[in-house]
Amino acid sequence: MLHTPASAADQRPDAEAGTPWHTLTPDDAATVLDVDPVTGLSTAEARRRLGETGANQLDEPPAAPVWRKVLALLTEPMTVVLVIAAVISALVSHELETPLVILAVVIFNAVLNLVQERRAQDSLVALQDMTVTRARVRRDGKVTLVEAHALVPGDVVLLEAGDVVPADGRLLEAAGLEIQEAALTGEASPVGKSTAAIADPHIGTGDRVDMAFMSTEVTRGRGLLVVTTTGMGTEIGRVAGLLGSAGRETTPLQRQIAHLATLLSVIAGIVVTIVFVLGLLRGTDVADLLLTAVSLAVATIPEGLTAVVAFTLAMGAGRLARRGAIMKKLSSVETLGSTAHIATDKTGTLTLNQMTARELFAGQRLFEITGEGYRTDGRLRVTGEGAAPDVRAALLGMALASEAVVHDGALVGDPTEGALVVLAAKGGLDVEAARTSWPRTAEIPFDSDRKYMATFHRWDAIGAGAAVEPALAAWGEGLAPDERTGTRVFVKGGPDVVLGRCAWLDTPTGTVPLDAAQLERLSSLNVAIGSRGLRVMAVAQRDVPAADAALASATSTPQELEPLARDLTLLALVGIVDPPRPEAREAIALAQRAGIAVHLITGDHVGTASAIAADLGIGGRAVSGAELDALTDDELAERARTYGVVARVSPEHKIRMVDALRSDGSVVAMTGDGVNDAPALKEADIGIAMGITGTEVSKGAASMILTDDNFATIITAVREGRGIYDNVVKFVRFQIATSWGFVLIFLAAGVLGIAGGAPFSALQILWVNIIMDGPPAMALGLDRPDPDVMHRPPRPVGEKILTGSRIGRILLSAGVMAAGTLGILALAPGTEPTAGLATEAGTLAFTTFVLFQVFNLLNVRSRETTVFSRRTFTNRSLWISLGVILVLQVAVVQVPVLQGLFTTTVLDAAQWATAVAVASSVLWVEEARKVVSRTAWSRAR
Fold first, then answer.
1. Are 758 and 768 in contact (CB under 8 A)?
2. CA–CA separation, 660 vs 668, rounded Å?
3. Which long-range contacts (CB under 8 A, 24 or more apart) does 80-88 make?
4. 257 close to 250: Cβ distance less than 8 angstroms
5. How far apart are CA 40 and CA 48, in angstroms?
6. What PANTHER family does the record tag this protein with (predicted)?
7. Which of residues 800 and 597 earns the better pLDDT score?
8. Which end of the chain is less packed: N or C, by CB atoms within 10 Å?
9. CA–CA separation, 180 and 183 (whole Å)
10. 10 Å Cβ neighbour count for 848?
């Protein structure tokens, strides 16, 4: 026998840690947890319990302390090389200035990396906070949304298909409830749930069918759960420690960059070796030569590539989130730019998701319905001549076979159901009174396989009639008390499905058989309404025979109830419109200009979907799911790209379309919001879930979440994704051009004997390296997308970061920089350095090379657009960084204290003008290339 502790504190689960919850009845579980399932916990009590139990979340490994991160940075190969350079400098020169500057560079790089990593991590943490799971919970007698981490034992949670179970709990209600528990038990098939207690206290987790467990997914039905355990005390929490912490994600682009960095490092190593050998052959002091070689290695090995790419992707993900697209995976950020197909649903994505009933066929008459959205200040207006028939039975079915609640124009629940409830209210039905007078006893939940929902209601002729049907009340007064009650089932769903379950038709003169002629007329009417761009719903009813009434209870499964939802009487057809979003047409047109094909994949009829697609500018053939079934996978792969509309689809059809569109290597984005969309979202290269209407399961399966459910946001995200990839390419171009400029300068100087084979000092090399890896280069990651970014075709998914054309541009820039720098060294007076003393030529060459980087930084910001445009001044961070660099470069050259450190001497105005003029040559050469490229592109068009 269960012992109920005397005090409320003792009744909480902490005091009952070993309670076998599955052995308790629902009432007993609620008693132990000290909660009324009807009202739930009070806000104050929930807050108090949260203080005792802690947050409902799994423990995460603690972040590495700063000292450990610093130690990791100081032991990186390039840092070790710099420290070695400092030691060599101290031993050779017997002075501390140069070693201290080198160590300052080490510290600067460490701080820069820490800041870079912190900003990237903060951006990703912010994204995680945006995707927090919420649960529908009863508190203070009302249903409210509560963040899952704030749940406490005793909270009463409402579950429906598409939800992720937020905590372990005992089921209080289960209507056709099935839960996928593979994440916990490994069982592939969903588990049917019930509320009956299980006697065996030691039964396995997978057999506790009256329990639901954290992180499992509701695939079908509806349930009510009282939370028993949260956080690390849950079943998934107990094994969390065994799962280990996931490694940091690296994207394909990051892996490609890492491979590129390794390759360039090998090349740089070879070049440094050659420079060192040439210096030895020339008789250069070994210690000085070694210091120069080490510094050159630091500058030419692109160790900053991977860090900056990670930073750019993370910051880009943050920018996408601010525009309404939350990227759950960094790999999806780079994949966005390659998107070639978008397979999108209609409701809420291309439309406003404000369903409004426009037409009603009931009582053999057609009605027009006025009013907009979810306000009830409209009316039903019969078309044609004659009095309007009584349609209250149809309106009653709409109200009862729905979960939606509408109050003061605000909807809680499904938009389609909201349109039906509003229609019932416009027709004069008191929806709340009807639901009270006709209590629900059982239901068959809607799912994508059935395509209908059925609810069973107990009626009383006197009570029901008083609220809804006065004629029924008058009729009931003449009956014996045991004849005044009964059970009625109301069904709503797609017309083809509901009509298939109907045998009768409601008319003003009574119920008549639904013969072939009537069925053909209704089918034609369905097509006609759909061709006007309206979604059609059918409503039907049946009085359950008394012999079967007992079966219509909450304990019956949908399979047991389905036979009772046959031989129905059709009450109405309803035409519902969801107005297209004004921005959707423009977004689709922009996608098509960018070479992205848009496919409308919907559960609507072909006629309805085609009308909407035509209105939105989506071309191509319109086919049905049944037509897809007739095609082999190979046939579908050949034809899928010609399909603009695929209607009446199942989840399997969506997966087949995704696979068919991907068959040629194209990147496919797929939108979805329901639990049955999850497989297709996982299958797509970019699964896109709806942040407002989407289920938790669909959000979990997706790699991108739209916070506004707006198709236009997808196109914005693609534009940003292309821009982010472009920014990565810009940085790669800039850094490698600088590295190869160094390589060419030192190789040529070594071979030709210019400046004694050592054109720059070690600290000068390190200073340029700071520019190459520092804030100016990082600021490239904040550039806005090019104006022409959506006028290009999608980037091939396997495209290398260094294409032939990009290598050509890099070599062109590096060659110009090397030629200009070497020209100054070779032609200017005072070229040969003496015992490490500064020369005007050396200072002028050093300054020119630094200015080359400034001009080249402007070059790489656009592939084809001239630098002489307003866009050049849009990146504020870049200009601030460049300003700081220029000020510091002037100081390095003109300030006596710094002259000694960097081996420089004062330059006069004419020499500064010379440096600017020579350095700007890299800009003029690139501008000429852009002109040639734009001209060739225009002719090709």
1. no
2. 10
3. 81/294, 81/297, 81/298, 82/106, 82/109, 82/294, 82/298, 82/766, 84/294, 85/291, 85/294, 85/295, 85/298, 85/762, 88/287, 88/290, 88/291, 88/294
4. no
5. 14
6. P-TYPE ATPASE, SODIUM/POTASSIUM-TRANSPORTING ATPASE SUBUNIT ALPHA
7. 597
8. N
9. 8
10. 23
Which ranges of 753-803 would DSSP assign to H, the alpha helix?
Answer: 762-773, 775-779
Rounded Cα distance between 872 and 867, Å, is 6
Beta carbons of 74 and 751 less than 8 angstroms apart: no
Residue range(s) occupied by CATH 3.40.1110.10 in the chain:
356-577
Enumerate long-range contacts of 182-186, CB under 8 Å, 24 or more apart: 183/215, 183/216, 183/217, 183/236, 184/213, 184/215, 184/216, 184/235, 184/236
Residue 934's alpha-carbon distances to 197, 575, 748, 784, 929, in angstroms, are: 75, 52, 33, 21, 9
So what CATH class is 8-57+135-240? mainly beta
Q: 81-104: string of b/e by CB count within 10 Å (b at 16+)?
A: bbbebbebbbebeeeeebbebbbe
Q: Which of 168, 345, 673, 726 is catalytic?
A: 345
From the DSSP assignment, how many helices (H) and strands (E) are in the chain? Answer: 36, 27
> What DSSP letter does each residue of 511-539 carry, written as one string?
EEE--HHHHHHHHHHHHHHHHTT-EEEEE
pLDDT at 98 over 70: no
The candidate with the shortest Cα–Cα distance to 419, out of 562, 543, 572, is 572
Q: What is the pLDDT of residues 150-177, one digit of tens each?
A: 999 999 999 988 888 999 999 999 888 8
What is the separation of C-alpha 936 from the centre of its chain, rounded to a whole number of angstroms? 38
- Report phi then psi at 900, rounded to 5: -65, -35
751 with 278: CB under 8 angstroms?
yes
Q: What is the pLDDT averaged over residues 852-869?
A: 89
Starting from the edge strand earliest in sequence, which strands make up the sheet with 597-601, in order? 325-327, 704-706, 686-690, 667-672, 339-344, 597-601, 643-647, 621-624
Q: Is the dihedral of CA 427, 431, 436, 440 positive or negative?
A: positive
Strands 156-160 and 168-180: unpaired
Q: 574-595 pLDDT, tens per residue?
A: 999 888 888 999 999 999 999 9
CATH number for region 356-577: 3.40.1110.10
Quote the pLDDT of residue 244.
45
Q: In the annotation, is 345 catalytic? A: yes
Contact 148, 13 (CB under 8 A): no
What span, in angstroms and rounded, lies between the C-alpha atoms of 258 and 305?
A: 8
637 vs 664: CA distance, rounded Å: 8
- The CA-based angle 231-237-242, given to 5 degrees, is 150
DSSP state of 350: T
Cβ within 8 Å of residue 733, ≥6 positions away: 806, 809, 810, 813, 860
CATH 2.70.150.10 residue ranges for the chain = 8-57+135-240
pTM: 0.73
Whether residue 535 contacts residue 607, with contact meaning beta carbons closer than 8 Å, is answered with: no
pLDDT level of residue 929 (50, 70, 90 thresholds): very high
- Amino acid symbol at 805: S
| DSSP code of residue 732 | H
**Which of 614, 605, 423 minimizes the C-alpha distance to 529?**
605
CA distance 763 to 523: 83
Sign of CA dihedral 286, 290, 291, 295: positive
